[in-house]
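Researcher: Next sequence.
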Amino acid sequence: MRVLSPDDLATQLRHPHGIHALAVAQSMNRSNGDLNRAALALLSVTAGEQVLEIGPGNAAFAPELLQAPHSRYLGVDVSAAMVAAGNALLAGHGLQERAELHLGDAHALPLDEACIDAALAVNTLYFWDELKLPFAELARVLRPGGRLCLAFGDAAFMRTLPFAAHGFHLHELAEVEQALRSAGLTVQAWRAHHETGRSNDGREVNKHFHLLLARRL
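Model: Next structure:
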């Protein structure tokens, strides 16, 4: 993948498409691998659970999430390229009977009420115009007692990334917690995630993320 301008990179991170889509997905998987695994550990999927992931890209971490026996997975992504790549990846792991990706977004989830046990969204809330509707949708599809794990960059850290100045919605931790409560989701755990590594634009940076675990009452 050629070096993309901050504006072009931001556009691809929001919606991978065209000739750069697969390379962008691979870059996201590399730069976000530790964060994704920290989120999976906090979500802690158990046997038989139905799991939803918002913005999974090519679903690279779904096989790890599906280690719980008889668990099932649904990914919802706005990118048709990622849906196709994700379904191919899941089939390659022999998981097509337990897992699939659909085209869609968090503002109007293609799901019935109270059908999900656990939901996950890693580095996606920057691309929502506001938090109220997506959180209300997630609360709608979660079963009573169901849980949501969010992972997102600390706003101060994100402002140091040139591409984040191009259409990213950056949110303070307290703002996200308040939006969850307003949607009927109770915050039960918070973790800070720090690491040194390469960002999606290839720079070596000290990363600072928040992980929140919320539960529907």
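Model: The first helix runs from residue 6 to 14. DSSP finds seven helices and seven strands in the chain.
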